[in-house]
Design a protein that fits this description.
single chain; alpha/beta; Glycerol-3-phosphate (1)-acyltransferase
Length: 254
């Protein structure tokens, strides 16, 4: 899916796509990246594709998806989405394909680690263990990513994202006591650490979103503002009659 089409698609459906200034992704050259995100909506795979092309030039983006769901949206295969069956066989395929992809340092693997659509304000954050199994085995940097799609002052919603600090195995994994040395315990510790990192990122984005302040964000893409139709025609005529430039946005951002 080409970047011009993605930009057109998002501009038709969102007022803006924004990245929190305090949560811009940190470059990690020469190292594969796992992006561990929450999963608020159907829009997430397309948003990942747009972020890959605008924030991570030169990287190839991929992401897992339930195989049945992917069958309904085959176009997503064109942006690097691969199908995973439920159950142990699917978990094994996810780990195998993920490790193969992450062997290339240019890989960017997007994972909606909650595994199901979840409200971004739901706490505690709960992640499926597959991302922890992958993260502790791969030679990759992990980036937490928070996503929200709130309505501010316009007819269309905002697409807001915020990345957390990068981490690899040593700073992310809690110290293991001798009593917690088994494989299951290590995965549980990784999962807990990822949940904490993602929850902190989501809390920070929630504060940004509640502020409704565009100055707290870098705007990657701007869509249409205003209501449209007869109402905006009336507003345009009123502005012309008063000798003012017509600004269709309610917040005056345009």
């Amino acid at each position: 899916m080409a970047e011009p089409y993605l930009r057109w698609y998002f501009s038709r459906n969102f007022h803006a796509v924004r990245v929190a200034r305090g949560g811009l992704p940190v470059a990690v050259p020469g190292r594969a990246v796992i992006v561990c995100s929450n999963h608020p909506s159907w829009w997430d795979p397309a948003l990942f594709a747009l972020l890959t092309r605008t924030l991570f030039p030169g990287r190839a983006g991929y992401g897992p998806m339930d195989a049945d769901a992917l069958g309904k949206y085959r176009v997503l295969r064109r942006i690097g989405v691969f199908g995973i069956e439920p159950g142990r066989r699917g978990a094994a395929r996810f780990l195998r394909v993920g490790l193969d992809l992450l062997a290339d340092p240019a890989t960017l693997l997007w994972i909606t680690a909650e595994g199901a659509f979840t409200d971004p304000r739901a706490r505690p954050v709960r992640l499926r263990p597959g991302v922890a199994h992958l993260a502790r085995r791969a030679d990759a940097t992990v980036l937490p990513l928070a996503i929200e799609l709130p309505f501010w002052n316009e007819r269309k919603p905002e697409a807001l994202v915020r990345f957390g600090p990068p981490a690899d195995g040593s700073p992310l994994t809690p110290a293991l006591s001798p009593a917690r040395g088994g494989e299951g315990d290590k995965t549980a510790d990784w999962t807990a650490a990822l949940e904490q990192a993602l929850a902190s990122c989501m809390d920070a984005l929630a504060a940004d979103a509640v502020s409704r302040d565009p100055a707290r964000f870098v705007t990657l893409l701007r869509g249409e503002a205003g209501v449209g139709g007869v109402y905006d025609l009336w507003r345009r005529a009123a502005a012309w009659g008063a000798g003012r430039r017509f600004d269709p946005s309610h917040g005056g951002e345009a």
